[in-house]
Design goal:
This protein is an alpha/beta fold. The strands form 4 sheets. Strands 2-10-9-8-5-3-4 form a 7-stranded mixed beta sheet. The protein has a 3-stranded antiparallel beta sheet with strand order 11-12-14, covered by helices on one side. It is globular, with a radius of gyration of 21 Å. The two termini are 22 Å apart.
């Protein structure tokens, strides 16, 4: 049973996305004076002892939270996940072969961006199906001599997600986890490289995480700039240049929030509850619909449309008046989209469903 409309405002943006209220309150309390130093984190030298204590604790907490093995390096980089479209092949391919899986807009863009670095093969694609599903692992057509296989775990625009870790030996798996990282536990050891932009489930934009297995470091092309070189970055604790200090601090607060909650098993249960509630409502409606194959429906990004597609902008405008923001679908696909990352409370989903029910009654 859905409760009465929640008297609050909720941000359903796909990214930069909402952050946990507790994290924002903590950042507010510490903004002018962190730990009685008289300094804001914004003002600290990234090499000073005060900031280094923040940095080291952030890395320790991420390693604990995500169960990252000791033979993996954690890099706190800049440039967004899109920069990894270039950094991955620069650091791994050595002018040889790699295979890419295309399951939506972002993985297709990654595939296209990598073309100049070697023989980039299309191992599987669901484009002909309008990305209503994700190519199954067993259908990936790659070579055992590939330097790596790349795929995207969750597509924010099309709302397509993989829910199982691939079981592929001998060829390193590189995965873009930007929009689903820390929403559930994964087996990090199944992957050679995990990367993610921060602005979905981790913190503010400006920070990119790269988790890379030790044996994959040290193979960059000679033309690779120092800031793009994983080996140089790992040898310098991600500080070959000034890192995104405040974004790293905020990420640390988010990691603490997740640990205090009970970790990724707890947040996964909440995410399953939220997404199931919204999908169930859509599936039982004759006014709204979602076409994504049910086995690949994203828990993080729920795209949907109305039978009366001409009402889309009215829906967006009325939703904003009701305090529900950023519901408009991506400009490439249109329609509507609700992004319900870790920080979105159950009350936000309830408020959206109540609004959708009301809008349907008024616009049948």
């Amino acid at each position: 049973m859905i409760s009465k409309p929640y008297p609050c405002q909720f941000n359903f943006s796909a990214g930069p996305a909402m952050l946990p209220k507790e994290v924002m309150e903590k950042a507010k309390d510490e903004f002018l004076n962190w730990n009685d130093t008289g300094m804001s984190v914004l003002e600290m030298s990234h090499r000073g002892k005060e900031y280094m204590s923040i940095f080291k604790k952030t890395e320790e907490n991420l390693r604990e939270l995500f169960n990252i093995p000791n033979n993996y390096k954690i890099l706190f980089l800049q440039g967004g996940a899109i920069t990894q479209n270039f950094m991955v092949p620069m650091n791994l391919i050595q002018g040889e072969d790699a295979s890419y899986i295309v399951s939506g807009y972002w993985s297709k863009r990654t595939f296209n961006d990598a073309q100049v670095f070697g023989n980039i093969n299309l191992a599987a694609s669901s484009e002909s199906d309008n990305y209503l599903t994700a190519p199954k692992y067993e259908d990936w057509n790659f070579s055992p001599t590939d330097k790596y296989i790349h795929f995207c775990l969750n597509e924010t625009i099309h709302g397509v997600e993989y829910f199982e870790d691939p079981n592929i030996e001998n060829v390193p798996i590189v995965v873009d986890m930007s929009s689903t990282i820390l929403s559930r536990q994964v087996d990090v050891a199944k992957y050679g490289v995990i990367y993610a932009g921060a602005q979905k489930n981790i913190g503010p934009s400006g920070l990119t995480l790269v988790i890379v297995r030790d044996d994959l470091i040290g193979y960059s092309q000679k033309e690779t700039p120092t800031t793009f070189n994983w080996k140089i970055q790992s040898e310098n604790d991600s500080m070959i240049n000034t890192p995104s200090t405040y974004s790293i601090y905020m990420a640390g607060l988010v990691f603490n929030w997740l640990l205090d909650m009970g970790g990724l098993d707890v947040i996964e249960k909440k995410n399953i509850q939220k997404s199931k509630m919204l999908y169930d409502f859509i599936d039982n409606s004759e006014f709204y619909y979602n076409e994504i194959n049910k086995s690949n429906r994203s828990r993080m990004n729920v795209p949907f449309r109305m039978i009366k597609d001409e009402l889309t902008m009215k829906f967006v405008e009325d939703a904003e008046l009701a305090g529900l923001y950023q519901i408009k679908g991506h400009r490439l696909v249109g329609g509507l989209r609700a992004s319900i990352y870790n920080a979105m409370p159950i009350e936000g989903v309830e408020a959206l469903i109540n609004f959708m029910m009301d809008f349907e009654l008024k616009n049948k």
